[in-house]
Amino acid sequence: MIAWLNRINTAATKVLEALIALVFLAMFVLIAVLVIQRYLFSSGLFGGDELLEYLFIYTSTIGAAVVLARREHVGIPVFWQRMKPWARKAFDTTNHLVIMVLNVYMLILSQKWIAGVGGSLSTMLRIPMWVVEIALPIGCGLTVLYGLLNILGSAPRRDADGGCA
Questions:
Q1: Nearest to residue 13, comparing CAs of 134, 128, 142?
Q2: What distance in Å separates the CA atoms of residue 2 and residue 148, rounded to the nearest whole number?
Q3: Spatial distance between the Cα atoms of 11 and 145, rounded to a whole number of angstroms
Q4: What is the mean pLDDT of residues 87-115?
Q5: Is the whole model's pTM more than 0.85, yes or no?
Q6: Cβ contacts of residue 136 below 8 Å, gap of 6+?
Q7: At what angle do helices 135-152 and 2-40 cross, to 10 degrees?
Q8: Who contacts 113 (Cβ-Cβ below 8 Å, separation ≥6)?
Q9: What are phi and psi of 99, to 5 degrees?
């Protein structure tokens, strides 16, 4: 079963990484267009700055989940190196459980938040704000899922230096 979960984990992570890369590419192109228009033509692109903010929100929330999936979140290797294997496992599991609990809490709060303010429209692009705000529960849900997969052992483990093995 772990091998099956590992294949799903790897495939989903690759899809999310590709999606984030495409969004970053789109952001780069949009920034270049905005700069050229602003400094060469003294004009702007309608809604360009607003769109950049919304794309950044999506890359941040989904990117946080991908970082957890790849076990590249912040760690302190000096402590990790001194732990016995059983202590590393316990610490790693506890770490993931705390991350999962916080993300479940944010997921619950974000649903109430979106229900309350998600019906308004964005200032420039006039898109419903829930389209932007839903990035938070998507990111939190993915983070909880990846935390669970990491606990079940379907993701690479850290080596003695604190990096991925």
A1: 142
A2: 12
A3: 14
A4: 91
A5: no
A6: 61, 106, 107, 110, 113, 114
A7: 150
A8: 133, 136
A9: -60, -45
